[in-house]
Amino acid sequence: MTESQNGTTMEEGKLVITRTLNAPRELVFKVWTEAEHLKQWWGPKGMNIEVKKFDLRPGGMFHYNMRTPDGHEMWGKFVYQEIVAPEKIVFTNSFSDPEGNTVRPEFSPVFPIEIMNVVTFTEQDGQTTLTLSGGPHNASAEEQEFFKSMFESMKQGFGGTFDQLEEYLAKV
What we know:
Elements: E1 7-11, E2 14-21, H1 25-33, H2 35-41, E3 48-54, E4 61-67, E5 73-84, E6 88-96, E7 102-103, E8 114-124, E9 127-137, H3 141-149, H4 151-171
Antiparallel strand pairs: 1-2, 2-9, 3-4, 4-5, 5-6, 6-7, 6-8, 8-9
Family: Belongs to the AHA1 family.
InterPro entries: ASHA1/2-like_C (IPR013538), START-like_dom_sf (IPR023393)
Domain Activator of Hsp90 ATPase homologue 1/2-like C-terminal: 22-169
């Protein structure tokens, strides 16, 4: 894997994104772990996020609705596996229905049902390096290949999401 200060790579079928943020680790961790902050920056640019449920603990869930300006809705969820404040968050991410049941996304019958994500936070000189590593969890070979084929799209999507995070951190 090659890493840059703000980079995106693939490693063993995982998307790895690194971003250095001009904010202390405790603040960056806080905006990842409190619903009122998370809804301000999570998701694709231009989407309005509504939090249906937020329970930050192993086995707990962040269940949310993303709405485009023209009213199209998509539901998603994180199911938390591990939280080590302020160092690490491990969660599965998936699309869901309004009740929180895991579903396949509308855009593909072979997108993996669950993506396992590990987010780490390290601080140096008042800046935080955030690293997100995510890949298919319990996925078929076809789902894993499709995930790899989405690399460029996901890179752009997470780039926009992390741009929003950076802008939000400058305001809080």
